Amino acid sequence: MTHRPAPTDIAIHPLIAGRWSPRAYADRAVAHAQVVALLEAARWAPSAYNVQPWRFVVFEKAQDPEAFARAFELLVPFNRSWNENAQVLIAVLADTLNAKGEINASAAYDAGAAAMALLLQAHAQGLAAHAMGGFDANGLKQTFDIPERFTALSVISIAHHGDARALPASLAERELAPRARLSLEDIAQFGAWRETR
């Protein structure tokens, strides 16, 4: 299932409503040109003072299977279990220092914006993309010699959409379950902060 628009209370852009995080992947290579387009979308994200603190380490199964395998092993076992057909892994990093060597307090926020642009571009290209926090961040930095100033925030797996029925029953159920989010009342305050439940 590739088309699962969110049941929004208010109409929003279809690209945003349609983006979701699938786990059913097809075992078919993703073209390098498509991967480059994802990175180009991320490149144009907004950032404080236009510092652009996002960095990406890209692992393409078809281009460099050895590096891909090393990155794949850094996923937690649960994420490895459903990513067997993933074709691309992209580590999302934030440069925690600015050009003066000072702490950039908005680095993670800005890198998150770039990652979201990448995810939206993947959806626009008809690709399945899933951002994960379940990976060995320290292992990633050590394995790939990433300098200390960079924080590893997430790993995004990318592939062509697959058949949810091929997933284990528990994951197939999650894949096909109705999409849900907290209500607007739970996440937004107008005019002042009020205690929520």
Task: Summarize the structure in words.
- This protein is of the alpha+beta class and 197 residues long.
- The protein has a single domain, classed as NADH Oxidase.
- It contains 8 helices and 5 strands, in the order αβαβααβαβαβαα.
- It has helices at residues 14-18, 32-43, 65-72, 77-82, 107-124, 137-143, 169-176, 184-187; strands spanning 25-26, 54-60, 88-95, 127-132, 150-161.
- Strands 1, 2, 3, 4 and 5 form a 5-stranded antiparallel sheet that branches.
- α2 crosses α5.
- The model has no long low-confidence stretch (mean pLDDT 96).
Give a summary of the structure in a few sentences.
The chain has eight helices and five strands, in the order αβαβααβαβαβαα. By secondary structure, the protein is α+β, with helices and mostly antiparallel strands.
Q: What distinguishing features does this structure have?
A:
five-stranded antiparallel sheet, 8 helices, 18% strand, 35% helix, alpha+beta, 197 residues, NADH Oxidase
List the helices and strands and how they pair.
Elements: H1 14-18, E1 25-26, H2 32-43, E2 54-60, H3 65-72, H4 77-82, E3 88-95, H5 107-124, E4 127-132, H6 137-143, E5 150-161, H7 169-176, H8 184-187
Antiparallel strand pairs: 1-5, 2-3, 3-5, 4-5
Organism: Caballeronia novacaledonica
Protein name: Nitroreductase family protein
InterPro entries: Nitroreductase, Nitroreductase-like
